[in-house]
Here is the input.
Amino acid sequence: MKGHKQVYFLTSNKAKFREAMAVAAMSGVRLRMLATRKVEIQSDSLQTIASYAAEEAANRLTVPVVTEDAGLFVDELNGFPGPYSSDVFKRLGIRAILKLMENVVNRKASFHSVVAFSQPPSRPKCFRGTVAGRISLDPRGAGGFGFDPIFIPDEGDGRTFAEMTDEEKNRISHRSSSFRKLSRWLSTLHA
Amino acid sequence: MKGHKQVYFLTSNKAKFREAMAVAAMSGVRLRMLATRKVEIQSDSLQTIASYAAEEAANRLTVPVVTEDAGLFVDELNGFPGPYSSDVFKRLGIRAILKLMENVVNRKASFHSVVAFSQPPSRPKCFRGTVAGRISLDPRGAGGFGFDPIFIPDEGDGRTFAEMTDEEKNRISHRSSSFRKLSRWLSTLHA
Here is the structure.
């Protein structure tokens, strides 16, 4: 990384890339999208998934690689859909979560994001962002992606993530928090 | 494998191991349980998951390795829980599937099992077993494991997998079918 603040973000999700890029740019870090093979292992831990993917790709491509893994963890569903959020979203959609939450009083949930930076032979360095909130009774809003229409962050005015502008969401989201930590750390390295 | 019919089955699930061992023994193949690290990747494809795990372990341990990946695929749920069946079972249990299937008329589902045998430098060899059936309205029976209490195989008398004896289940199950194919192939190799 010496001498350049450009890092490769391994993802095929353009919405996720845009979110991350906007946050990193504020710290003067330029993210480049790398849409190549990403080895995602099955694990309860976002950190394990993100680290493995970053290290595997960095070893294979011999460039510094950033990966991110995120998920929606619903308290009363024992953390489901958790690390498998994107697959659950694709197969079942938002309605299934609302169905599982029918008549459930405790609607607490949180979004977690873990960013892993790998530059072998160093071990991957991880940064976590979390946002607490609750599951709405109905989907609302057309912004964001994934489960955003049913997630109401505590630190807000009652709107779902999908009802916010990108800027509003980026101020408080789990992903902006983890990428902000990564970006600050990278800036320090090059200061 | 030359000269010995003993192979290592990488799993930490004792019930799964017993099922597989009983089937393999009928073809004269002795399975040994290997309860060490198994790298399970996220994929829509059981074959991809099983092959990667077998090859990774065979390379690391330098012995021939067998892995199995299985899942319950519910038609009206777009294949959910599929490759993530065991995680979904652990987090949500059987009741969640019944909840998602409330008022759903089409209850078709199938269990799939893919067994991968890896002995580098050869590419992994895969064997698939499938059993078609339907999701019951209520859980029934105490045998088997995982989603067995809500799965009624078409090739049966209306009982769930969990209401059958091990022998009855082994005659028709997806896992017995994939392991029978593996065992026959291994026997041929040594004939």
Remarks:
- Chain A has one domain: 6-189.
- The first helix of chain A runs from residue 14 to 25.
- The two ends of chain A are 12 Å apart (CA to CA).
- DSSP finds five helices and seven strands in chain A.
